[in-house]
Amino acid sequence: EDQVTQSPEALRLQEGESSSLNCSYTVSGLRGLFWYRQDPGKGPEFLFTLYSAGEEKEKERLKATLTKKESFLHITAPKPEDSATYLCAVRFTGANSKLTFGKGITLSVRP
Amino acid sequence: DGGITQSPKYLFRKEGQNVTLSCEQNLNHDAMYWYRQDPGQGLRLIYYSQIVNDFQKGDIAEGYSVSREKKESFPLTVTSAQKNPTAFYLCASTPGQTDQPQHFGDGTRLSIL
């Protein structure tokens, strides 16, 4: 069965303390991996799409990378406003346009 | 600005009552989706529609119904058969190319009175 696992469940960082969030997947075939940010009481906000191993995308303090089995969301010198839940979703081969989501990682950045 | 509008933001349901959640998009997207989000769980797909007048069940369709009479609208009805309806409901859409990311509305929180 195709699955998506995110780790850790929660992460607390000091402002400026860089770290990485992990999304691992077991799939028969990957058609795309998506990162979203979700603030409390809001819908997920799209961040990045990655389609093939070795691909990287960058936006401000965030950088997403992809291998054949996992993706990392690297956060460089985070600020308190980066506090949110980060969701990973995967579109598998043969799944039409359906996405399978991980449970999310709750990031807290202390000033 | 283009986007997805969900209403109401908060909704309360009485026992035995059906309630309908609204989702409207002005992005001219072909495909629309309904998800349910519970604490500590990933988003789970309820129903999706890739074209007007057609829709498919997702992973947890029991107790829910949808319609897609217009391209821009995809309402979700939570029926009395759904025994645990308390959750955060999210609507999403994508353009015709299915490798594009899904874009989400800001959700409706449904609670039981």
Give the key terms.
heterodimer; A: 111 residues; B: mainly beta; seven-stranded mixed sheet; four-stranded antiparallel sheet; 0% helix; 49% strand
Outline the biggest β-sheet of chain A.
Answer: 6 strands, mixed
Shape category of chain B: globular
Chain pair with largest interface: A-B, 25 and 26 residues
Element order of chain A: H for helix, E for strand: EEEEEEEEEEE
Sheet with the most strands, sense and barrel status of chain B = 7 strands, mixed
* Proportion of residues in extended strands of chain A: over 45%
Output the radius of gyration of chain A.
14 Å
| Range of helix content of chain A | under 10%
C-alpha termini separation of chain A: 41 Å
Describe, in plain words, how this protein is organized in 3D.
The complex is a heterodimer of chains A (111) and B (113). Chain A is built from no helices and eleven strands. Chain A is mostly beta strands and 111 residues long. In chain A, the strands form two sheets. In chain A, strands 2, 4, 5, 9, 10 and 11 form a six-stranded mixed sheet that branches. A five-stranded antiparallel sheet of chain A has the order 1-3-8-7-6, with no helix packed on it. Chain A starts with a strand and ends with a strand. The model of chain A has no long low-confidence stretch (mean pLDDT 94). Chain B has 113 residues and is mostly beta strands. Helices cover 0% and strands 49% of the residues of chain B. Chain B contains no helices and eleven strands. In chain B, the strands form two sheets. In chain B, strands 2, 4, 5, 6, 9, 10 and 11 form a seven-stranded mixed sheet that branches. In chain B, a hairpin with a 2-residue loop joins strand 5 (44-51) and strand 6. Chain B is globular. The A-B interface holds A 4, 31-32, 34, 36, 41-46, 49, 51, 87, 89, 91, 96-104 and B 4, 6, 31, 40-45, 48, 50, 58, 90, 92, 94, 98-107, 109.
